[in-house]
Design brief:
- With about 190 residues, this protein is an alpha+beta fold.
- The protein is built from four helices and two strands; from the N terminus they run H-E-E-H-H-H.
- A two-stranded antiparallel ribbon has the order 1-2.
- The chain is rod-shaped.
- The two termini are about 80 Å apart.
Length: about 190
């Protein structure tokens, strides 16, 4: 569009050719009589030189230039937004991977604590409340690890995360599910 606007500021040359078939008569019956008609033609060249059109042209040129700059800025903004979203997604994915590693470690620690408290309870050294507290911590660690695995699966759709979460959920279900009546126990089935 800017090239068209700039071209308007330059002189333009046009040529034309016109062919006429005219007739003059007073009586309608003589309309097709060749004596009353004649042929004519015109050949010409015109030249247009814009003189007083400069401000309108400059305004249109500036408007087109501003629109072009605005489109470039919008493209840059979209590109920057895409880069930010990509960086954010990479950061979130990295955080999810980190969270899985942390919750896996916490789950192992909670399992060790629960096992140790179970042994101490069996020896009569610790109370049932301490054992139940260890079981609660283990259950929370299980839930947090399952959720971290699901979050990671939602980002990369790698089935190993969902399989690990389902396997861990099956272990939790074996410990807390009431197979006879349905529902869930608040403590493990072995108590």
């Amino acid at each position: 569009e800017m090239n068209a606007i700039r071209a308007e500021s330059k002189p333009s040359v046009n040529s034309y050719f016109r062919y006429y078939y005219n007739s003059q008569f007073n009586d309608p019956g003589k309309a097709f009589n060749g004596d009353y008609s004649y042929r004519s033609s015109t050949v010409g060249v015109t030249m247009t030189v814009p003189i007083l059109d400069g401000n309108r042209r400059k305004s249109r040129d500036n408007t087109a230039r501003l629109q072009l700059e605005q489109l470039k800025l919008q493209d840059n903004q979209k590109l920057d937004r895409a880069h930010m979203e990509q960086a954010s997604a990479a950061l979130t994915f990295g955080n999810n991977q980190e969270q899985v590693a942390i919750t896996r470690h916490n789950l192992a620690l909670a399992m060790d604590v629960f096992t140790a408290r179970g042994e101490l309870y069996a020896q009569g050294v610790s109370s049932l409340m301490e054992l139940l507290e260890g079981e609660k911590e283990l259950s929370n660690a299980d839930n947090l690890h399952i959720q971290a695995l699901i979050d990671l699966y939602e980002w990369d759709f790698d089935e190993r995360w969902i399989r690990e979460a389902l396997a861990l959920e099956a272990i939790v279900a074996d410990r807390f599910a009431d197979a006879e009546k349905g529902g869930w126990f608040t403590t493990a089935a072995d108590h």
